[in-house]
Amino acid sequence: MNYPARKYSRVAASVIVSLVTLAVLFVVPTSQRHRPMEFGQVAPLAASSSTLGFADSQFFFYNEEQVAQTVQRWVANNIHAVRIGIPWANVETKKGIYDWSRADRVVAAAAGANISIICAITSSPLWAAAPGSIPPNGRPASPDAYGNFTAAVAARYKGKIAAYEIWNEPNGIFGYRPVPDPSGYTDLLKAAYPKIKAVDPSVTILGGVLGSGKSWSTWTINPVTFLTKMYAAGAGPYFDALSYHPYSYTMKFSEGMYQSDSPVEQLVRLRLLMLANNDRAKSIWVTEFGAPTNRVSEDAQAALMSNMISSWRELPFGGPLMLYTTRDLNSSSVMEEDRFGVYQANWTAKKAQRVVQSPPGTSAVYQRFATVTDPALGDVLSPVFAASSTVWAQLRTSAMLWELTPGQFVLSPSPVGDVARARRVVPLTAFANGYQDFTGSTPVRVWYSPETGAHWGSKEFAKAWVPQLGLATSDEKWVFGGKKIMFQNGSMTWAPLGGTKVWLNQQR
């Protein structure tokens, strides 16, 4: 499943739209004045996983009528937070000359409806772009110049914008050209963070803004690798929360825990990386999630959004969730970017609009898991997910928690749970005496201790195992036409003719 190709093709389409807009703005009269706007403060942003809003990247480019229509729908759907963009390339087209007219209009419209704003600051002007980059998403030649612009935005809209995102999807070539660069992106954080905070200390600054997906040549870097390199470059002190875009059009968010590199599996690894870097207090915000209705049906779009909302609310480290997006640009288009709306272009509601207006809460299954509060299990890392047709599970930092029947829970140490997910099996027994048995299409036993690690063997080895062998020190593997597992005090072999044999060290 190639997440990057699908996700970044959506971004590529937006590049075309932005380039056209950039060309138009070269002839728009500009103003050098960027004094603060004058209107009342807006409600503070509730930075919790229950905060639901829209991400609307086209809102900046709308005319007055379209802006008013969009805000009207936000209010009708009980939306109290939105994510918009203020593109540097469209405000400071020429160095030192600013046109704030579009930005003023969209900020005033949202704030006037008492809607909290998350603002992504992106897009280098031609004069500020690095050599070899392609507008509008070419990296800035000077991080300091980018930082100066973010400070100008923060000064103008102090008290009106609650959070700032530093760039958008820098882990892909369509978000950050000429190539993704974690160290270069970290330089943007280091330049922008202190300058924004000096102007408005109350705002939240979101780092990362990472798209889900696999590493793909020099075009994309998977978000876990990208964040790892951000931390190595010193990004830790320069963001207040991490931003993530867990797009998938074919799999519900909570259903990906058995799929390597799915959006939720990458989320778990991002969270573990944050914990390893002493960032437990920081949350993860989803500032884009959606699906276009030329790739999925309206029913599927609604189901994907419903599952995302419900699953996200289970995560104690989750921040606000922004759905992409309010309205289609063109409901007849074959381009993905044109069809993400929960409304058609003529404002006819799609089925997903009802999900937004009446969002789901957490499930009854989750409510049972929430009663298991033993601190020895560690922090919650994943939503509750279906491990089989009858077994539910949730990953925590120290254990995998399984529900075999309603209210009947068993535990696996985290390394054992990781093996179980990789083998796509569920528990038959509790973990005891250094091992746990699992069932599935290929039943296995997993032996584990902190010293030996977690290692698996098929049921033939489990039946013949004797305690004198100790715990497994290798996984089952094929050797010379048979199979073998190494143990602390010997080994076991299996051959088609000879069956399973136990070899204790003293027998050698």
From TrEMBL:
Single GO MF descriptor: hydrolase activity, hydrolyzing O-glycosyl compounds
Transmembrane segments annotated in the record for this chain: 12-29
Protein name: Glycoside hydrolase family 5 domain-containing protein
The family this protein is said to belong to: Belongs to the glycosyl hydrolase 5 (cellulase A) family.
Keyword Nucleus on entry: no
Keywords: Glycosidase, Hydrolase, Membrane, Transmembrane, Transmembrane helix
UniProt cross-references to InterPro entries, sorted A to Z: GH (IPR017853), Glyco_hydro_5 (IPR001547), Glycosyl_Hydrolase_39 (IPR051923)
GO biological process: polysaccharide catabolic process
Superkingdom of the organism of origin: Bacteria
Domain Glycoside hydrolase family: 53-305
Keyword Transferase part of the UniProt annotation: no
